[in-house]
User: What shape does this take?
Amino acid sequence: MKDQKTFDVIIIGAGPIGLACGIEAKKSGLSYLILEKGCLVNSLYHYPLNMTFFSTSEKLEIGGVPFISHGAKPNRFEALEYYRRVSSSWGLNVNLYEKVEHVTKHNEHFDLTTPKSSYTTKSLILALGFYDLPYLLNVPGEDLLKVRHYYDEPHPYFNQKIIVVGAANSAVDVALETYRKGAEVTMVIREPGIRESVKYWVRPDIENRIKEGSIKAYFNSEVVSIKEDSVDIKTPDGEITLKNDFVLAMTGYQPPFDFMESLGVKFQDDEFHSPVYNEATMESSMPDLYLAGVVCGGLKTNKWFIENSRVHAELIVNSIKQKTPQ
Assistant: This one.
């Protein structure tokens, strides 16, 4: 299959759901290829080093491969090991570090080009995830090197004054971990409090640290300007300036809407910019183009997770099989 250029189905994205789609295609005897611009489960790889999943290990399983973790909820290292094992166990046809640059549809086929090759397929699955496009603060100074939209580990922030922007799980995890490794942490939060969606076993910890003053928090506030050694914040009591070494903007991420729209995917006129698709088949408004995983939720990125979107793979492949001549 290595030199093959035409497939029954091509899957863009080698995250857990993209792998699940590949597994279902292989089980059904369809020729398939998974294309990934980064490493295997690229989004998970870029999660914080010490991240623990919200889901238990069995809810992250795909392809009938058991996922055994040391704790009730697996961590990032265990997940990376697991999905490597899944890919190897199934012998999945995955091309890593091969970014899809162009997709066009001619008659009933999609033509894809990458820096390495070109491919043709009757059916295309977008399992893109949403971790590559962070929401920007859109304030002066955001382009400074001290501003980070991704976080990996706490060590670089020891003995530093840091501002964490956000009130969801990522921001809370970053604030707590950096505080416990010696950073002076201030949170800047637009909302009046920590979000209700924060993991239930973490919420008391962050609320107590804020209450006792170990972590300073400005609610109903926002960053308005960033300078080399300070940050200006608009608060309910007026604008203030804080000494600062790093800004960690944990403001969330969004799906690649421009790429999806370029392929002909239509979107609903709602606050989440939700893509239009058939819930029974996951087929988008563009015939033979399917959506899988978190991209199905548009801006509502907490709607679909690995555990509740694993089923997309089977729905999609069943639809493709019905259209594929035997």
Notes: The CA atoms of residues 294 and 305 lie 6 Å apart. The helical segments are 16-27, 42-45, 76-90, 169-180, 203-212, 257-262, 306-309, 311-323. Residues 6-132+253-323 form a domain with the FAD/NAD(P)-binding domain fold (CATH 3.50.50.60).
